[in-house]
Amino acid sequence: MSKPLTISRTIDQLQLPQDDASLWRLVERYDTKGPRYTSYPTAVSFHDRVDQDDLFNAWRTGRRDVSLYLHLPYCHQLCWYCGCHMQVERKIEPMRRYLRAMLQEAGAYPELLAGKRIRQFHLGGGTPNQFPKHLLLDLIGELQQWFAFDEDCERSIEVDPRLLNQEQLEAFARLGFERLSMGIQDFNPRVQGAINRHQTYEMVAEHLHLWRQLGQGGVNMDLIYGLPLQTEISFSQTIKQVIELGPDRIALFNFAHIPHLKRHQRLIRSADLPEPQVKFKILLNAVRALTEAGYVPIGMDHFAKPSDPLAKAMLNGNLHRNFQGYTTLPDLDMLGLGASSISMLDTFYGQNTKDLDQYQENAGRASVMERGLMLDEEDRFRRDIIQKWMCGFVIDVKRIESQAGVAFDDLFPKAREVLHQMVDDELLTVKAFGYEATALGMLLARNVAMLFDGRLGETKPSQFSRTI
């Protein structure tokens, strides 16, 4: 049986490419399009042959506690890189109307969730801190009357630093939010101009100081590599500034340039995007800097201080991955409320309509679920392999064969050849139980997961972002 992977924290042991020729060979071989595997099966496999009754039945039969996610889709301006489901809106009444619809949707669940505790609570978007404080207070107060929030419930909220102020921070602290997730992306002014998102280092530092004074302190920062006009030197400076700010967790996302799916991304000039080799160098330099600063690599795109629960979960084998990314609590079903939100249970996934008008019209009166998927036995089998890879970074061949009662090479006849190539490229090492990732292999985790995706042939490459 494989053991949880303990990733080296020192740069000398990271096994990163040492010359441009080796780097370019890796880019040529592995720069493809593929899913991010926040779930398996992925959302592109969802269809409309299931309905809200299927979702409700899954909740009735489920026995696990709950991670509650609320999607608040409004932003005060358009960031050109954004791949989220959002809409620019600055008036209060549409926000009030949307939250009213969300409460109507939530009203269907108190009975379904009877006996279950809310152990994680996350507000995402969009820009949750654009919503007026009193509307958020009313919303959360209502939800706390309907659902059983665990005493130690993890509460987090995504915030735009440009809209933060002391009054908001104090309100979030009173509501029990112990973690802010800040969208930083890049501190370089030229890059910020190219993505229409201007915010200064000094502004962010001031907000962090206030938050820590309130005794909370939990901070995530989201960064994106591969943005227009980004260079190795410019992003290294951003990483240095982020390290100085000392967030507990850092998400280092690959920019998904998908203008065919997100029309506003056409405002970004393709000619301004870094070439794949340069983009990979930007990533490797960031990994070097973060690990040298003491951050523990968490999966393919997250880093955490050794004292953070996410790092501890990684190192003791309790890391999990869902539609929100990496999480510390593995045994939860996720309830998503709001337009475009996804609910994720053991045997069923369901996604709400993305159309805001339709969502608000149907909430509380008709189905707001637009599509979903009933997982079969093979889906769950492959999900287990991919989850263990994305979270523990091992391919336990012996365990897979024992679970299936079939030889690994019969199950995945084309996988072994690719895995051996990955060993030669120092993405994997051979172990008695199968294969284990190197630190470099963690960064290209999506490429390995794709070997075990039984539904990849049903999809189009244009539905995904590039792996490098």
Q: How many β strands by DSSP?
A: 21
> Could you tell me the strand content as a percent range?
15-25%
Query: Kindly state the mean pLDDT as a whole number?
Result: 90
Could you please say which CATH topology of the largest domain applies here?
pyruvate-formate lyase- activating enzyme
Structural class: alpha/beta
Give the end-to-end Cα distance, rounded to a whole number of Å.
31 Å
Radius of gyration using CA atoms only: 22 Å
* Total helical segments: 17
Shape: globular
Which runs of at least 5 residues are low in confidence (pLDDT < 50)? 1-13
Characterization of this structure:
Helix 3 runs parallel beside helix 4 (133-146), helix 3 (92-106) crosses helix 11 and helix 8 packs parallel to helix 9. With 468 residues, the protein is of the alpha/beta class. It folds into two domains: 11-39 and 377-466, Arc Repressor Mutant, subunit A; 43-374, tm_1862 like domain (pyruvate-formate lyase- activating enzyme), CATH 3.80.30. It is globular and about 60 Å long. The strands form six sheets. Strands 10-11-9-8-7-6-5-2-14 form a nine-stranded mixed β-sheet, sandwiched between helices. Strands 15-16-17 form a three-stranded antiparallel β-sheet, with helices on one face. A three-stranded antiparallel β-sheet has the order 18-20-19. The chain contains 17 helices and 21 strands.
